[in-house]
Amino acid sequence: MELRLKIGSRHNGFVLLETIIAVTLLSAGLISGIGIETLMKKHESRRINEIKQARAMYELDRIQTHQTQLLAG
Fold it and tell me: Could you give the number of structural domains in the chain?
């Protein structure tokens, strides 16, 4: 019976250790996933702003070109 208690408590210790490791890995995965998502959103937002700025510059150039052609023509 004493041997059974020693084995049982050792088994419980391994189960607890496995549980702690599993929870730690899941937490780390969740945190890194959130971090990656945040970085992707920032990059996407930056890229959208760059595209909007390039579009505005293109449209301004087209307007100026059109006005120049009207004045010359």
Answer: 1
The DSSP call for residue 57 is H
d(CA 59, CA 49): 15
Give the 3-state secondary structure of residue 1: coil
| Predicted model pTM | 0.56
**66, two tokens:** 């059109």
Enclosing domain of residue 21: 1-73
DSSP-assigned letters across all residues of 16-67? HHHHHHHHHHHHHHHHHHHHHHHHHHHHHHHHHHHHHHHHHHHHHHHHHHHH
User: How far is Cα 8 from Cα 65, in angstroms, rounded to an integer?
Assistant: 85
SS3 label, residue 50: helix
Question: For residue range 14-58, what is the model confidence (pLDDT) as tens digits?
Answer: 888 899 999 999 999 888 888 888 889 999 999 999 999 999 999
